[in-house]
Specification:
Layout (H helix, E strand, L loop, with lengths): L2 H16 L24 H6 L3 E6 L5 E6 L4 E5 L8 H4 L9 E8 L5 E4 L5 E5 L5 E3 L8 E5 L14 H19 L4 E3 L11 H17 L3 H10 L2 E6 L4 E5 L2 E6 L11 H11 L1
Parallel strand pairs: 9-10, 10-12
Antiparallel strand pairs: 1-2, 1-8, 2-3, 3-4, 4-5, 5-6, 6-7, 7-8, 11-12
């Protein structure tokens, strides 16, 4: 979708819609352990130290964070000042870039290849330590180098209900603009775990992102506009998605960090297979 269309759509739908749209695998030969520069620290030392590394692309000033875990890894592509990705614009209080859970496989020459939930490669780290990143929405890989930063572990921080409401409003406005028809993001009343609505707030962003991904062409936008009128978020014991009538139901687990919500890739995959 062109930047011009997105901006025109937001201008046309955003103000009117926001006025009343939203109411009050660990093994000894684990490939993760093969990354260059990572020593086999005792578990207690590794738990105390941050495994988050900051990278900057060699072509521009874009940055991402990478976190190695015992049997998995995470990556987060940070927003910059002029970033037009939906997750960077959806919340007026600040960006909400997705945290991706990655699986790892060994590639040629000892490279470690990291893939997302759709088996798409997001990151490749060479045996000599160099990194190639496949920035979301871009087909070609770009070289990246380590930078400096004292970054916290990649997990959801505390967010209150107001943040979830704000993101639901932003999601409704932006997705409505993209598909050319109003769509309602319904977060319900019971939205938090001990006052923390972080999982719900993140689920809203990623649902909007997944829908926007499918609606990124004229046919996809038309189908979604005709089939989905409301996106309902329901607390549950499992992160799931279903479509009933004109309602897309997204279930989240309030206290499970990113495991408690579906990734944008899972949302997009479900819609592609169901619509």
């Amino acid at each position: 979708m062109s930047i011009r269309f997105l901006r025109m759509g937001l201008a046309a739908f955003g103000a009117a819609f926001l006025a009343g749209a939203v109411p009050a695998y660990a093994q000894q030969d684990n490939p993760f352990s093969a990354l260059v520069g990572k020593s086999r620290e005792p578990a207690e030392e590794r738990a105390r130290a941050s495994n988050v590394e900051r990278y900057v692309l060699t072509t521009d000033d874009r940055m991402f964070l990478f976190e190695e875990r015992d049997s998995s890894a995470r990556v987060q592509f940070l927003c910059n000042e002029n970033d037009l990705r939906l997750e960077c614009m959806i919340d007026v209080a600040g960006p909400a870039p997705e945290i991706y859970e990655l699986s790892a496989t060994r590639g040629p020459r000892g490279d470690i290849i990291y893939k997302d939930a759709r088996d798409e490669t997001l990151l490749r780290i060479a045996a000599y330590g160099g990194a190639t990143v496949y920035w979301p929405g871009e087909a070609r890989g770009v070289a990246a180098s380590k930078s400096f930063g004292d970054d916290r572990p990649l997990r959801l921080g505390f967010l209150d209900r107001e943040a979830a409401v704000r993101r639901a409003q932003g999601a409704a406005a932006q997705v409505s603009a993209i598909i050319g028809a109003p769509i309602y993001f319904d977060i319900g009343e019971n939205t938090s775990s001990g006052g923390n609505a972080a999982v719900l707030a993140d689920a809203v962003v990623l649902a909007a992102k997944g829908i926007a991904r499918v609606a990124d062409d004229e046919t996809g936008a038309r189908v979604i506009a005709s089939r989905i009128k409301r996106v309902a978020f329901l607390p549950s014991t499992d992160a799931e998605i279903s479509l009933g009538g004109e309602v897309l139901e997204i279930r989240y687990v309030p206290n499970l960090d990113i495991a408690g919500r579906l990734s944008s890739a899972k949302v997009a995959q479900f819609l592609e297979e169901s619509l």
